[in-house]
Specification:
Layout lengths: L1 E2 L5 E2 L3 E4 L3 H12 L4 E4 L15 E2 L3 H7 L2 E4 L4 H8 L10 E4 L5 H13 L3 E7 L12 E6 L1 H11 L5 E4 L6 H29 L4 H28 L9 H17 L5 H15 L10 H6 L5
The structure holds NADP nicotinamide-adenine-dinucleotide phosphate.
Length: about 300
């Protein structure tokens, strides 16, 4: 919200760079909140119904940046963001850039330094929820970087709904959360498809298997919370289950998968960590101890 010299108020004009599924969802949410919206995309013709709803599409990045007081970039990766921003070398006075592109913490910090060298007020961010959540109460967006930039864009970013948490001055912090959360997602998806492959190889009907598999998913929230407490306390009681027991369990999975010709690479990597833990005398401890074993320098 901006108060003009005549005392009236108007909503901050927003530019969205990138009209993939997420960029379109972000632009739609800004329109829903009645912000003036300008959009730009490398490939023209992707604005769809955003134009009918009042968005303005421009052909050049430079025009897009000049139109918005807050520019939100949401592209495939940081290389694309930098390549696009190189096309707007000027016109950043009194403007802020929020980069909601997924990336790595080091890339976010580098991008922040790059923006700073060009006098661009920069905030990094990560979208944790799918497109349909944007603009609703379930949207989750992490932001990090200079506090004064966050304060300047906070109200505008509220149009995206849900929670937009500022995680502090380190511009890499939002990406750090994102990659750690993606770590869970990537390995979980791999685990799920691997389990279906194994179950199918044993002739188990997928829907019947799913009925039990969802029960495993239900155990995870409590486990995540408990692990957090143990890692914080650096204390890993093995009362519920031990690393030694997990070593035995994972061996059965590896052997059965291998007998069916199913790749067991992810499991053998996990088993290697477990074996290191046992070799270091951690066999009687709980599974959260593996965090410290993983953190050790890579071993042969
Ligand atoms: N979709 C989701 O549910 C979701 C959820 C959370 C986070 N995210 C994150 O949001 C970001 C955008 O995701 P998305 O789903 O919208 O689709 P995406 O496929 O990751 O990105 C598509 C956008 O990137 C642009 N692009 C690709 N290469 C480019 C280049 N070299 N130069 C300029 N522009 C380039 C595309 O332009 P063209 O149209 O010209 O190809 C399009 O605007 C990603 O970082 C993604 O990880 C997405």
């Amino acid at each position: 919200m901006i108060t003009t010299s005549d005392g009236n108020t108007r909503l901050t004009p927003v530019t969205v760079l990138g009209l993939g599924p997420m960029g379109r969802a972000l632009a739609a949410a800004f329109l829903d909140a009645r912000h003036p919206v300008t959009v730009w995309n490398r490939t023209p013709g992707k604005a769809g119904d955003l134009l009918d709803r009042g968005a303005v599409a421009v052909d050049s990045v430079q025009d897009a940046v000049r139109a918005g007081e807050v520019t939100v970039a949401c592209l495939i990766d940081y290389d694309a963001v930098q390549a696009v921003l190189e096309q707007a070398p000027a016109g950043w006075e009194n403007r802020r850039l929020v980069n909601l592109t997924s990336g790595e913490p080091a890339q976010a910090r580098q991008m922040s330094r790059w923006a700073s060298s060009r006098g661009i007020d920069y905030l990094d961010g990560a979208v944790l929820t799918p497109t349909e959540a944007i603009g609703t109460s379930s949207a989750a967006i992490l932001l990090s970087g200079a506090r004064h930039v966050h304060e300047a864009v906070q109200e505008t970013m509220a149009a995206l709904g849900g929670t937009a948490v500022h995680l502090g001055d380190d511009p890499g912090r939002a990406s750090a959360y994102e990659v750690a959360l993606l770590d869970i997602f990537a390995t979980s998806v791999n685990g799920i498809v691997h389990a279906f492959a194994l179950a199918s190889a044993e002739g188990i009907e997928p829907a019947r298997f799913a009925a039990f598999a969802t029960g495993i998913g239900g155990l995870l929230p409590e486990m995540i919370t408990r692990f957090a407490q143990q890692i914080r306390a650096d204390h890993y009681p093995g009362e519920r289950s031990t690393i030694a027991s997990a070593a035995s369990g994972i061996t059965h999975v590896i052997n059965t998968a291998t007998s069916h010709g199913i790749d067991a690479g992810m499991l053998t990597a996990a088993k290697r960590t477990i074996d290191h833990a046992v070799a270091d005398g951690h066999g009687p401890e709980g599974l959260a101890r593996l965090t410290t074993v993983l953190r050790k320098a890579s071993r042969p």
